[in-house]
Amino acid sequence: MPGGIFQVCLLVITAIVNQPLLFPKENATVPENEEEIIQKMKERQESLRLQQLRWEQEIAGQEAIQKALEKAAGLLEESKERNVQWDMWTAFSMVILLLIELWRQDFQEGNSQDTGGEEDDVAVLGKAFKGVAFPDKAALVSFYEKRILGTTRDMARIREMVEGFADDLLEALRSVCNRDADMEVEDSIGVGSMYENWRVRKPFVCDLIVPFAPPEPYCFRSQTWCSGNSFPPNEQGYGTIKVCRTDEDVTGCICDKTKLGEDMLCLLHSQANTTRPSSEMEDLLCFKNTQYLDADQVMKWFQIAVTKAWNRISHKYEFDLSFSLLDSPGALKIKFRSGKSVAFNITPVVQYENSDVYFISHFPRSGLAADLPSSTHWFLTFAVYERRFIQLVSKTLPVNACHVSCLQILSFLHEKQCSLTGPSGLTNYHLKTVMLHLLQARPSQDWALEKLEARLQDMLKFLEKCLHEKKLYHFFIGNGKVPSELGFPIIFQRAEPLNLFRPFVLRRDIYRKTVDTFHEMLRNMSALINEYTVPTPLAYTNGIHKGSL
After folding, report:
1. Domain spans of the chain?
2. What confidence category does residue 541 fall into, taking pLDDT thresholds of 50, 70 and 90?
């Protein structure tokens, strides 16, 4: 019974639950909401899929950027490696260039003016020298004895007479000058061929240089082409001389080197202090409106001073004194009543610092300073050091060495050839420079008297080589092998070598004329020497009379 009642109740409850009418009306929308949920789920799924795609794209982009960065880092590393390799190559190249430059300087100092052995020199000679009949030793000795040695015995007497008169003239010059306003003149110095005992050309002319200095409180401050300032090629070998007060700053103020502008004023130097009256600087022989010493003004002052000095002492002498050459302001001539005359050159110079290098305005008869850039440019002369070098080397040479004889013979031959065919670009200074280079390059024993013929050939071969290359370097400038005993200024030893044949590069006409004259001299050499040669005993030619040289 109780089980039946339970079954009935369960049936009733099931019927009620399964009866649709028993639920409210809104429950009929449940299926629609399910579809909306499904639709939203699909939309959510699509959104998640799109977001996943974006994330995948972003991840791919980041990976691409990472790869690009890694690639850039690799390229940078490779670039650094290449730069390191390039820097190493650059450094290696610089080392090579430095070694080449050092070799070039050594070559120019010693080997560029290469004298070499006699066998090496033969290869340098041109066709003009081949086939030339060179005089033998006997002819050269006889020629030297008759034509050169006999004519040079009066040089010592002429030097003594000129030096004595020059000292008296300069002493008179000091007395007529105003010590408070005029330049102060020092004692004269003999230079050149007359004082190196190799001059052969008559008339014998002594060359004297006279250092001078400005009156107190002024001083000279010089600048050369190798002192650090830029000089154009045509001004190499020159310098300028500035007249300054001794209390001025040696280094100078920047206002003297830079244009400050119209509205700017130097606090150290007022306009009143920096600007000097034009007349004051002209009285100090400066170029107009500058502080630079004017060579033309100096020569005019010196001529006037010499004239006044001569007027004071002329009564003491039985000869006349006059200026002999218009183009050489320091050329003087002594005229005796007998008609004979003695010429000499006396030229004012300025000392370079505390050395024996001098600034000189004119080179009488040498042509070395024919084309001055301006009258404020002064040429530097090393004549005192050249004389000292010859004296120093002569002490190490054999007795009666032939170096001076070679230079005298070569100078004579060149002078004779120029008298026949006209002047050339070669000067006696060029010939002396050749001898100086050979004196430094060859051993002392090579200059023995019996080797006169060989050394003369060396000089001719060396000169032809220089003419062919258009290069003959100044003996002192750029020569690091100058003996320390001379006390030569180091600034000129470290300078670039100065090519004395540079005008030949610029003037082809002069170069052609010079080469033709040189070759003509070679061809006429035997004839010129034989003209002054007399038969000589064999014993003489074998060296018995060695004392003649």
Report:
1. 129-248+277-533
2. very low
Instruction: Provide the total of helices (H) and of strands (E) in the chain, helices listed first.
Output: 17, 10
**In contact, 495 and 478? CB cutoff 8 Å:** yes
Alpha carbon distance 482, 218 (integer Å): 34
Q: Which two tokens stand for residue 216?
A: 């107190």
Q: Which two tokens stand for residue 208?
A: 């004297």
Burial 131-153 (b: 16+ CB within 10 A, else e): eeeebebbbbbbbbbebbeebbe
pLDDT tens-digit profile of 7-39?
666 666 665 655 554 444 444 444 456 777 888
Dmax (CA) of the chain: 195
Give percent helix, percent strand, percent coil of the chain, each to the nearest 5.
55, 10, 30
Q: Is 430 exposed, middle or buried (0-12, 13-18, 19+ CB in 10 A)?
A: buried
pLDDT in tens, 111-131: 445 444 433 433 344 555 666
CATH of domain 129-248+277-533: 3.30.460.90
48 pLDDT band (50/70/90 cuts)?
A: confident
